[in-house]
Design a protein that fits this description.
binds heme C, Cytochrome Bc1 Complex, Chain D, domain 2, 2 domains, mainly alpha, single chain, flat
């Protein structure tokens, strides 16, 4: 390789670097343009969420219409505060088992008892209430409610009942 080759290489290489730098600057300008034209607060859901967040804490209501408005507001507030229950509160034990518990109990992962009678001979004598209690609060490596804290106690009971029905 001669010194001339090196010079040619360096020249082309610097050209590539310069082209990349120009490309980067163009991209930055385009991004700025998008940022300006799209705006950030045009999303109606976002605007609504913000105005709900900055609403005054208390309202002043007077007379009969005022009472009705206050009742309606209180109702909406308590509905909003109601805890979210998994699967719309369904008590379908088989469905809950499939969606939540099967992840471990179908495969026996981490020593989870599978839906075969042999895995339950030592556990059944504890009684259903104790088994349900363990499923709700967790036992050993099993997390409380199988890791779905949004399940209600009744939903866990329904899925335990489903499991026991399979092994008895
Ligand atoms: C992350 C894995 C996992 C998930 C998900 C899971 N379990 Fe378990 N479960 C286990 C393991 C492991 C054990 C055995 C624990 C032990 O005996 O130490 C167990 C044990 C149990 C037992 C027997 C408890 C006892 O006292 O012997 C019941 C009942 C049970 N699970 C119900 C459920 C139900 C109902 C669900 C779904 C809502 C569920 N499990 C989801 C891992 C899991």
């Amino acid at each position: 390789m001669s010194a001339n080759d090196d010079r040619i290489f360096l020249k082309r290489f610097s050209l590539v670097i310069v082209a990349l730098a120009i490309f980067a600057i163009v991209m930055i300008l385009v991004a700025f343009q998008f940022h300006k034209t799209l705006g950030q607060h045009d999303n109606p859901a976002r605007v609504e969420a913000i105005s709900a967040r900055i609403q005054p804490v208390a309202g002043v209501y007077a007379g009969e219409t005022g009472r009705a408005a206050a009742m309606a507001a209180a109702e909406t507030a308590s509905a909003g505060a109601a805890p979210q229950v998994a699967f719309d509160g369904s008590l379908d034990g088989a469905m809950i088992y499939d969606r939540v518990c099967a992840a471990c109990h179908d495969s026996g992962a981490a020593g989870a008892p599978m839906l075969v009678a042999a895995d339950w001979t030592d556990r059944l004598p504890k009684g259903e209430d104790t088994l349900v209690d363990h499923a709700i609060n967790g036992i050993g490596v099993m997390p409380a409610k199988g890791g779905r804290s949004d399940l209600s106690d009744e939903q866990v009971r329904a899925s335990v009942e489903y499991m026991l029905a399979q092994v008895q």
